[in-house]
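step=encode ok
step=design start
structure_in=
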């Protein structure tokens, strides 16, 4: 793996063999070490009440790796979902325009469809030409959040030292180990979060 501190490529051990940076840490130590390293960050209050300092813009350097077949397929599925969304939007606006004079709303529809099309194309590029940007970052804690609406939805968040708040899956939430380093793989073009994998301990 690539050490997030000294950027040297080192084997997956419990700490960096080049600079000694711990890949597992007591959480308070991690928070203190990070807060000291970045005085200009913004504070966010985590569910536990601990306040974490997150940089406005993280300065992690990603490793570029080819996408796996499964990661490519995720992008193909997303491209298909965006295509469905585009078709539904055009159908709805088509029927609406028959019933009423929608006037200048057309402009916004065109902009919306163009935005959806760009997202779809980005996923298609990731499918055919797939590269992942892999970031290594320390997990501070996770949160299970239930929205207070008529139809409540449950969201899961991971709070990382540099990347801040990230939407994660339920499985990742329950498997999470606070204080451990994780590799987060993003599709390069669409920035879709593909995987969160814990750095192995040895
Ligand atoms: Zn290092």
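sequence_out=
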């Amino acid at each position: 793996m690539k050490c997030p501190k000294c950027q040297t490529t080192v084997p997956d051990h419990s700490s960096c063999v080049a600079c000694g940076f711990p890949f597992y840490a007591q959480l308070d130590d991690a928070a203190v070490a990070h807060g000291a390293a970045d005085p200009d960050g913004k504070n966010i209050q985590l569910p536990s009440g601990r306040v974490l300092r997150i940089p406005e813009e993280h300065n992690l350097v990603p490793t570029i790796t080819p996408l796996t077949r499964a990661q490519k397929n995720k992008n193909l599925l997303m491209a298909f979902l965006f295509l469905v969304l585009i078709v539904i939007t055009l159908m709805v606006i088509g029927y609406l325009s028959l019933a009423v004079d929608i006037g200048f709303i057309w402009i916004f529809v065109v902009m919306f469809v163009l935005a959806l099309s760009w997202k779809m194309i980005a996923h298609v590029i990731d499918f055919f030409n797939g590269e992942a940007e892999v970031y290594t970052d320390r997990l501070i804690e996770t949160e299970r959040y239930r929205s207070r609406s008529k139809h409540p939805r449950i969201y899961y968040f991971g709070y990382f030292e540099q990347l801040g708040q990230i939407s994660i899956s339920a499985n990742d939430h329950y498997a999470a180990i606070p204080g451990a380093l994780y590799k987060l793989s993003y599709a390069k073009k669409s920035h879709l979060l593909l995987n969160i994998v814990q750095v192995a301990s040895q």
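step=design ok
step=annotate ok -> The beta strands are 42-45, 51-54, 63-66, 131-146, 154-160, 164-168, 181-187, 193-198.
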